[in-house]
């Protein structure tokens, strides 16, 4: 049975993992059956239009494609253009095509686009009456003359409104800036007063949002459940204090806002169903706000109190205040970010480890006072922990990631009576005293091998009584519950571990990670200059499922990794997809060649070179190897006088550009 014999449903599921660009320009040209399948509505629910699409598709071809798939399109996104990754990209051709009379766009539910020319704005709203979500760039929203906001008022079903960050600066003088921000707030407030069904509002980079605008939003939009204000510096708490009692908001993100403890107290009392809270960079928020969160929001699942500007001012998050929070009620907390809080110590982590056992993601980066004892307890106590960020914890050392899972030891099985019942039912075991060592017990319990019995008396089956056999079985059962026998060690469930710039990290710590965290997928030990090739060897042998490994050197001190590390990584990490080795001066070009000739496909290698261009002959050796047909794509980032050029080298086995 070949791939062409698979059912249509299975093929559609496979094709759903292929980017639309490849669907349109590669898969479609395979055969006639696949050509018809490539225009199935299932594959075109989300259209991520990019500059590559626009350059290769003529208006006629694009219109032909949209006529076939338009009924199934629900989401249109210009995400790369919105993130300023694509410049000088016009949307006119695409907008003209979707506004064509033969293209049915009535099912479109969301649109993500940096800007919409005014001449297409009103026809677009009429063409897409079911539009429920729209996201635009901040520059377009801030500099428009109100036509855009007036047009959106004609969308009664609009549920989500987002203004995304724009990398382009809006050049205005002081008088023009004050006038423009006043108009911007007036347009926003007028729109919010008409769109009463709004549920999600995200406003990014609008650092001149007025309290009056926020009051209109919170008082008019009763169904609001998610509010995110990034760098929207309100002058007072008046805007947020307009929240009605028992508000339905479950997600609140206030980034670099001017709110203080009084405002946070009102928020916590008005929004008892809060599940996600973030007030990163809010300088006037202290431990008092955290206590209110703990008391009034018992269902809190995600908490972010990080302080990104810790280098410029003293953090308001104290050790004793956070301990009070976690000691009260945080059993449902799964995500915690307290990065940049300089006063956090191991004592706080010990409280977290005891009270927040359901944690899955923890960010402790830039917590300079951590030493290691609290981290050890956190990893061993939070059995569901998948992501741990310890970047720039410079004094972190003496890691001990020993994790024990009682569910996989013989002690629980014995306490439940399972093993005892099996022993009492069996009647063909020899008698005599049973002497079992710890190694025999653990080996028998783990691998399922038969247990060895040793008699200190002569075995006489005819003279043995049933009472003697029962006593022997009881002794064996009791030996399983002996407190002197240590339980077998079971690994941690960590998947992502970031420990960059942890200067105290050494090979012994890496051995602990390799022994007790074999399920790791991403490991960052950038700038850990006390590690050597031996530590890297332990990591790649113990964590063979790694997909990303960062062993690059920081700007402080050179790492001591050589070509031996590259050889070990190429030999053992068969699932690796990205390797960062920038500024490792002891790694030679021969070592890089060896790695590239034997590494898995595809993989991205980020390295440093004095050369301005890396060709295939520079990276791959001419000798025959496992990756003889490997192709190289090289991108040069920037050069520095001391280290050379950063290169991102993509290695794959296809003649096509897989970025497309």
Structural write-up:
The chain has 660 residues and is α/β, with parallel strands linked by helices. Helix content is 35%, strand content 13%. It is globular. It starts with 7 loop residues before the first helix and ends in an 8-residue tail after the last strand. Mean pLDDT is 76; it is low at 310-314, 404-424, 426-466, 476-489, 610-617, 620-631, 633-644 and 653-660.
Any key phrases for this structure?
alpha/beta, 660 residues, 20-stranded mixed β-sheet, 26 helices, 35% helix, disordered C terminus, single chain
Computed Rg: 31 Å
How far is the first residue's CA from the last residue's CA?
Answer: 30 Å
Structural class: alpha/beta
- Tally of DSSP helical segments: 26
Main pleated sheet? 20 strands, mixed
* Number of separate strands: 20
- The overall pLDDT average reads 76
Work out the strand percent: 5-15%
Keywords: Ubl conjugation pathway
Region (Disordered): 459-478
Biased composition (Polar residues): 468-478
Organism: Magallana gigas
Spell out the blueprint of helices and strands:
Blueprint: H1 8-15, H2 20-25, H3 32-37, E1 46-48, H4 51-56, H5 59-69, E2 75-77, H6 79-82, H7 92-98, E3 110-112, H8 118-127, E4 133-137, H9 138-143, H10 147-152, E5 160-164, H11 174-194, E6 200-204, H12 211-220, E7 226-230, E8 251-255, H13 261-270, E9 276-278, H14 287-296, E10 302-304, H15 319-328, E11 335-337, H16 346-355, E12 361-363, H17 373-381, E13 387-389, H18 410-415, H19 418-425, H20 438-447, H21 466-480, E14 496-498, H22 507-516, E15 522-524, H23 533-542, E16 548-550, H24 563-572, E17 578-580, H25 589-598, E18 603-609, H26 616-619, E19 631-640, E20 644-652
Parallel strand pairs: 1-2, 2-3, 3-4, 4-5, 5-6, 6-7, 7-8, 8-9, 9-10, 10-11, 11-12, 12-13, 13-14, 14-15, 15-16, 16-17, 17-18
Antiparallel strand pairs: 18-20, 19-20
Helix pairs in contact: 5-7, 11-12, 13-14, 14-15, 15-16, 16-17, 19-21, 22-23, 23-24, 24-25
């Amino acid at each position: 049975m070949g791939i062409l014999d698979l059912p249509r449903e299975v093929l559609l599921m496979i094709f759903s993992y292929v980017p639309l660009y490849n669907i349109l320009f590669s898969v479609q040209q395979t055969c006639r059956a696949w050509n018809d399948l490539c225009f199935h509505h299932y594959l075109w629910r989300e259209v991520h239009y990019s500059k590559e699409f626009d350059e290769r598709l003529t208006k006629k071809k694009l219109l032909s494609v949209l006529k076939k798939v338009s009924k199934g399109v629900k989401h249109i996104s210009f995400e790369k253009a919105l993130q300023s990754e694509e410049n000088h990209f016009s949307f006119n051709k695409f907008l003209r095509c979707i506004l064509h009379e033969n293209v049915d766009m009535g099912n479109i539910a969301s649109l993500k686009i940096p800007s919409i020319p005014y001449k297409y704005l009103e026809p677009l709203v009429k063409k897409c009456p079911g539009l429920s979500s729209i996201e635009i760039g901040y520059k377009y929203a801030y500099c428009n003359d109100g036509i855009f906001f007036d047009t959106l008022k004609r969308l009664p079903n609009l549920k989500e409104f987002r203004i995304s960050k724009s990398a382009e600066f809006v050049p205005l003088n002081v008088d023009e800036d004050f006038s423009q921000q006043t108009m911007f707030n007036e347009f926003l407030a007028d729109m919010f007063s008409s769109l009463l069904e709004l549920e999600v509002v995200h406003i990014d980079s609008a650092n001149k949002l007025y309290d009056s605008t926020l009051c209109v939003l919170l008082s008019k939009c009763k169904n609001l459940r998610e509010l995110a204000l990034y760098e929207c510096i309100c002058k007072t708490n008046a805007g947020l204090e307009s929240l009605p009692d028992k508000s339905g908001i479950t997600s609140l993100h206030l980034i670099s806002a001017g709110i203080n403890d009084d405002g946070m107290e009102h928020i916590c009392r008005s929004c008892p169903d809060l599940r996600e809270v973030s007030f990163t960079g809010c300088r006037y928020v202290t431990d008092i706000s955290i206590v209110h969160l703990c008391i009034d929001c018992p269902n809190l699942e995600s908490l972010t109190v990080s302080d990104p500007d810790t280098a410029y001012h003293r953090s308001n998050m104290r050790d004793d205040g956070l301990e009070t929070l976690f000691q009260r009620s945080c059993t449902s907390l799964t995500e915690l970010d307290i990065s940049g809080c300089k006063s956090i110590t191991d004592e706080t982590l010990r409280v977290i480890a005891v009270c927040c056992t359901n944690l899955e993601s923890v960010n402790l980066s830039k917590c300079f006072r951590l030493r290691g004892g609290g981290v050890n307890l956190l990893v061993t106590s939070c059995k569901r922990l998948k992501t741990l960020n310890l970047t720039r914890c410079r004094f972190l050392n003496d890691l001990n990631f020993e994790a024990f899972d009682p569910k996989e030891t013989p002690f629980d099985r014995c306490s439940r009576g399972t093993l005892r019942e099996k022993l009492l039912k069996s009647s063909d075991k020899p008698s005599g005293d049973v002497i079992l060592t710890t190694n025999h017990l653990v080996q028998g319990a783990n691998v399922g091998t038969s247990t060895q019995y040793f008699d200190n008396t002569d075995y006489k089956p005819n003279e043995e009584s049933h009472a003697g056999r029962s006593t022997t079985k009881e002794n064996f059962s009791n030996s399983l519950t002996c407190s002197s026998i240590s339980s077998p060690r079971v690994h941690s469930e960590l998947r992502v571990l970031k420990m960059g710039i942890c200067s105290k990290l050494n090979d012994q710590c890496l051995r602990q990670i390799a022994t007790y965290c074999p399920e790791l997928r991403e490991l960052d030990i950038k700038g850990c200059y006390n590690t050597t090739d031996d530590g890297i060897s332990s990591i790649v042998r113990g964590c063979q499922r790694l997909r990303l490994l960062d062993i690059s050197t920081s700007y402080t001190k050179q790492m001591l990794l050589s070509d031996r590390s590259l050889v070990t990584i190429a030999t053992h990490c068969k699932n690796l997809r990205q390797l960062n080795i920038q500024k490792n001066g002891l790694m030679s070009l021969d070592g890089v060649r060896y790695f590239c000739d034997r590494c898995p496909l595809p993989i991205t290698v980020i390295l440093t070179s004095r050369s301005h261009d890396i060709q295939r002959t520079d990276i791959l050796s001419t000798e025959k190897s496992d990756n003889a047909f490997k192709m190289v794509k090289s991108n040069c980032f920037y050069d520095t006088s001391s280290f050379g050029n950063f290169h991102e080298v993509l290695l794959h086995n296809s003649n096509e550009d897989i970025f497309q």
